[in-house]
Specification:
Length: 344
């Protein structure tokens, strides 16, 4: 996730049991222009493997070139193509979920990228552009025998034919952005289509271990992808993993432990911001860079939900500029949680 899943965060998610992690999406054009920030995003650490680098773009040439750069510079395990981002600056220009309006171009990009690299290529997309078009199939895709095939079913088969090795589906349309509930029924239909043999990864609104288990059971998906629910709680994967393995929640995670995890996240984020890298010499490295990245995670942590009058502390977290300040605020937050729970 953009501005969220940097390497420091990915390593924590991995440590807590995520089977696989993905980079923030990286613009193909920016990568080709050698923009430092983009190069930084594609850096991987062996400890996060298997790791996917995700790219987005709007034409075959730049996507192929960017895919080759990712393969040769970053050596990820997987190259993921983003055809799902709904934001205007991306989808409005035809990239990300914008590709749902030009499905043939989506397929052309996918097949050329698959041919251009040796590593496995995967795709992430949404159900369609908008609800009215969920059953609109491009005329050239029509099959004589079927009249009401959902667009995503047909698209999934065609993406599979391009040679991708897995498909992630976020159960919303582009028009929904992040509103409403994710519709998993169409994800399930894709998974249960006998013509589909690649792994289908379901995505959208998984916030708890029970919801993850339910998604596996009801829709038969091969994996679930968890996004927003990880903000401020990378340990979610530990609970999901324990629950999937044992049917019970992980009760070893105390408040003290969680607070230490958040502090470790701060430290790692600063460490990554300050580290040396010859390829990125020009970039100014500061503690503040790492702090700016991590403070939104902390401010959104579910640990602080429901704590009365927490707003001021949250604002202070969002404004903190040093590790020391953030640590002090986390200590303060912990005291607030403890006194709140004692009074319950
Ligand atoms: C701040 C933010 C940034 C995101 N950036 C990306 C991205 O770079 N690549 C991507 O595939 N999805 C991105 N997403 C979408 C999520 O990966 C996910 O598909 C979506 O939030 C639904 O899943 P969830 O309910 O588990 O969050 C982003 C979402 C948010 C909120």
């Amino acid at each position: 996730m953009e501005d969220v899943t940097d390497q420091a965060f990915r390593l924590l998610c991995k440590e807590f049991g995520a089977s696989m992690v993905y980079s923030e999406f990286v613009s193909a054009d920016a990568l080709i222009r050698n923009v430092n920030r983009s190069l930084e995003k594609i850096r991987v650490d062996d400890r996060e493997r298997p790791v996917a680098i995700q790219i987005y773009g709007r034409d075959v040439e730049s996507m192929v070139e960017a895919a080759k750069i990712v393969e040769s510079e970053a050596h990820p395990d997987i190259l993921d193509i983003n055809f799902g981002c709904p934001v205007k600056k991306v989808a409005g220009k035809g990239a990300g979920a914008g590709m749902l309006r030009t499905p043939q171009l989506m397929l052309d990009i996918t097949s050329e990228v698959v041919k251009a690299v040796k590593i496995p290529v995967t795709v992430k997309t949404r159900l369609g552009w908008d609800v009215p078009s969920l059953y609109d199939i491009p005329t050239e895709w029509h099959r004589a025998s079927e009249d009401k095939t959902p667009f995503i079913l047909e698209l999934a088969e065609r993406l599979q034919d391009c040679g991708i090795e897995a498909l992630t589906i976020h159960g919303r349309t582009r028009s929904q952005m992040y509103q409403g509930e994710a519709d998993w029924t169409l994800i399930g239909e894709v998974k249960n289509n006998p013509r589909i043999h690649i792994p289908i990864i379901g995505n959208g609104d998984i916030c708890t271990a029970e919801q993850a288990a339910d998604a596996f059971e009801r829709y038969g998906v091969d994996a679930v992808m968890i996004g927003r629910a990880t903000f401020g709680q990378p340990w979610l994967f530990k609970d999901v993993r324990t629950y999937l393995d044992t049917g019970k929640h992980d009760d070893t995670m105390t408040l003290d432990w969680k607070m230490e995890v958040l502090k470790r996240q701060v430290q790692k984020s600063v460490e990554y911001s300050l580290r040396e890298d010859n390829a990125l010499k020009e970039r100014k490295r500061t503690e503040l860079g790492g702090i700016m990245h991590v403070r939104r995670h902390l401010a959104n942590s579910p640990l602080f939900k429901g704590i009365p009058d927490f707003r001021q502390t949250r604002v202070k977290i969002l404004r903190a500029e040093t590790q020391e300040e953030l640590f002090a605020l986390l200590d303060e937050a912990k005291e607030r949680i403890l006194s709140f729970t004692e009074n319950q």
